[in-house]
Amino acid sequence: MIDESEKAEWTDLTPDASPSTFTWYKHGKRQAWVNGHHIGRYWTRVAPKDGCGKCDYRGHYHTSKCATNCGNPTQIWYHIPRSWLQASNNLLVLFEETGGKPFEISVKSRSTQTICAEVSESHYPSLQNWSPSDFIDQNSKNKMTPEMHLQCDDGHTISSIEFASYGTPQGSCQMFSQGQCHAPNSLALVSK
């Protein structure tokens, strides 16, 4: 049910606007379309207030593992591909299944400043390298090596690579450091 006294507002985006997201904070179950493109079906879950312990990614995944933002929605940002947006007159259609407050949704332009990526010998090879026989023949999988591919959308370029290490780097995003084993030409090779 939508209260007629509330108004929905869609901000027209300029042709050179950055990729966009829409944000919703309130509970509800809904589906969303932007300019006829189905974004998906979503329902907001709230992280338990007492579930935010130290994060450890090892082992099997379960829903309470690595919980953040306890007591708040687990996800509030949803990506709208830039190619789906027009310079103006964009249409956001919401189908509310269980109530919620659709008029508290906002649309914002976002621009990615930093991207972190990591690949190691223990990672699986890229999916495009797999074939049906790889699921049967263990030797085929062992011959393939993990890869990482970085690319930008048309009209954008990678401006710099801050860190690269072939060896045993330590740390995490924006806090990486060289480990005891490091190939000195790693950054130059990755920057090509």
TrEMBL record:
GO terms under biological process = carbohydrate metabolic process
| Keywords associated with the record | Glycosidase, Hydrolase
In this chain the SUEL-type lectin domain maps to: 142-192
Q: Which GO terms describe its molecular function?
A: beta-galactosidase activity; carbohydrate binding
InterPro entries xrefs: BetaGal_gal-bd, Galactose-bd-like_sf, Glycoside_Hdrlase_35, Lectin_gal-bd_dom
This protein is called: Beta-galactosidase 9
Query: Which species does this protein come from?
Result: Vitis vinifera
